[in-house]
């Protein structure tokens, strides 16, 4: 896998006008010491010198910074694609036009369900209507518009209706990612998929991918959606240069991706926890040096299958997949190398008459990007596809992984 920096995801501010109950960074208030305008513009210069191709602005909510459009313009002027992920609550038609004039290339609006389902997760009544209006405003302003969604037990029943909406709104793409127990999401374990739920999730995603493609919309599987099941090509085939034969090639953190926190902290992926994964701060060290020299960003380049554990260590695809999404593994178990959100893994477990259940053991300290701890229970697979286990049906625990 290449180690050429291609995509940077930059948290401009932790300030937010939503109150999402699954927010991994616990956004709401700005960080105490966020980069000022001059520092942010120097970051743009450094990223351009490193050869970054795309810079995606996130938050919190990026447009809440007074210098938001100045930063957008600087990224575009430096020859990099400037994209954005937004909840959309404040994207008026006027702002959308100003974003277009500043040079923003693409905007992805977050939608996690229809109507009340979205509003519940986003913590603000009316946030669904605001997000849809933002999409209409962006399209009217000439901005390429896409969608992104959290996959969980709340959003899953509404995925068909969501695709219909995105097709109606003219979205060119839809990225989906699993909700994992980082930040506030750890406080809502009943929202999260169990590994055995993936038997239902992936056929549905493949169906949505085909239907979207027919309507001119590409469904993109996020890095923690996978891996190597019968629908892998349907979900990733169009992401390869040839447009066919797509498959997951392992964590991109520090390979082609970089994450920036609003106070200047640099890590290989924006979703990774701050503790243990920050290689330095732009106020003290150049981004180039952090990228090339720090162990915190080099782990995905250096880790071998020997670093895997649990079911991932025994997997046929270990040398290619390398344990899947390190963010997902770490926020469940406090270490990378064993990812329970894997379709191939769920299928292999079912062949053995087993399934896995994730059990929360503790919560995190309440900080941005925090996480608690979980364990895996292996139990007989009775083929029950219901979202909730039957309370009256006892489950025999076969093994509790703590290694």
Summary, kept brief:
The chain is of the alpha/beta class. It has helices at residues 37-50, 68-77, 93-102, 116-122, 127-140, 159-168, 198-214, 232-236, 287-293, 295-302, 310-313, 318-321, 326-333, 343-351, and strands spanning 7-11, 54-58, 81-86, 106-110, 144-151, 173-178, 218-221, 257-260, 265-267, 278-281, 354-362, 373-380, 399-401. Helix 3 (93-102) links the parallel strand 3 (81-86) and strand 4 (106-110).
Give an account of the 3D structure.
The chain has 403 residues and is an alpha/beta fold. The protein has helices at 37-50, 68-77, 93-102, 116-122, 127-140, 159-168, 198-214, 232-236, 287-293, 295-302, 310-313, 318-321, 326-333, 343-351; strands at 7-11, 54-58, 81-86, 106-110, 144-151, 173-178, 218-221, 257-260, 265-267, 278-281, 354-362, 373-380, 399-401. Strands 7-6-5-4-3-2-1-8-9-10 form a ten-stranded mixed beta sheet. Helix 7 links the parallel strand 6 and strand 7 (218-221). Helix 2 packs parallel to helix 3 and helix 3 packs across helix 5 (127-140). The radius of gyration is 20 Å and the shape is globular. The model is unreliable at 389-403 (pLDDT under 50).
Count of helical segments? 14
Got a strand count? 13
**SSE order in H/E notation?**
EHEHEHEHHEHEHEHEEEHHHHHHEEE
Quote the beta fraction: 15-25%
Alpha-carbon Rg, integer: 20 Å
Mean pLDDT across all amino acids: 91
Helix content: 25-40%
Poorly predicted runs:
389-403
Distance between the terminal alpha carbons, to the nearest Å?
A: 29 Å
Strand order of the largest sheet: 7-6-5-4-3-2-1-8-9-10
Biggest β-sheet description: 10 strands, mixed
Shape: globular
Structural class: alpha/beta
């Amino acid at each position: 896998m290449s180690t050429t920096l291609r995509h940077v995801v930059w948290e401009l501010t932790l300030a937010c006008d939503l109150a999402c109950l699954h927010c991994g960074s616990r956004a709401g208030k700005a960080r105490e010491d966020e980069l000022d305008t001059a520092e942010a513009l120097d970051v743009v210069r450094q990223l351009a010198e490193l050869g970054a191709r795309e810079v995606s602005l996130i938050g919190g909510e990026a447009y809440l910074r007074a210098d938001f459009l100045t930063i957008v313009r600087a990224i575009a002027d430096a020859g990099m694609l400037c994209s954005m992920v937004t909840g959309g609550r404040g994207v008026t038609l006027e702002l959308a036009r100003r974003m277009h004039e500043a040079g923003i290339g693409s905007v992805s609006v977050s939608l996690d369900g229809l109507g009340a389902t979205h509003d519940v997760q986003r913590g603000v009544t009316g946030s669904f209507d605001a997000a849809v209006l933002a999409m209409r405003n962006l399209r009217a302003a000439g901005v390429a518009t896409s969608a992104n969604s959290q996959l969980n037990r709340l959003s899953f029943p509404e995925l068909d209706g969501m695709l219909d909406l995105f097709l109606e709104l003219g979205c060119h793409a839809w990225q989906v990612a699993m909700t994992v127990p980082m930040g506030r999401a750890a406080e809502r374990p009943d929202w999260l998929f169990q590994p055995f739920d993936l038997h239902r999730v992936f056929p549905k995603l493949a169906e949505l991918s085909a239907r979207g493609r027919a309507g001119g919309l590409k469904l993109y599987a996020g890095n923690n959606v996978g891996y190597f099941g019968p629908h892998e090509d349907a979900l990733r085939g169009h992401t390869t240069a040839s447009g066919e034969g797509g498959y997951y090639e392992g964590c991109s953190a520090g390979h082609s991706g970089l994450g920036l926190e609003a106070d200047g902290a640099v890590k290989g992926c924006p979703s990774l926890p701050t503790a243990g994964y920050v290689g330095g701060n732009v106020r003290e060290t150049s981004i180039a040096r952090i990228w090339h020299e720090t162990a915190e960003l080099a782990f995905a380049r250096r880790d071998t299958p020997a670093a895997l554990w649990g079911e991932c260590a025994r997997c046929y695809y270990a040398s290619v997949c390398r344990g899947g999404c390190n963010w997902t593994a770490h926020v469940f178990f406090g270490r990378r190398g064993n990812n329970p959100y894997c379709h191939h893994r769920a299928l292999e477990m079912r062949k053995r008459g087993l399934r896995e259940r994730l059990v929360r053991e503790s919560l995190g300290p309440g900080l941005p990007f925090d996480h608690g701890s979980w364990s895996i229970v292996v139990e007989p697979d009775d083929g029950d596809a219901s979202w909730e286990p039957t309370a009256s049906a006892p489950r025999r625990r076969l093994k509790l992984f703590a290694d």
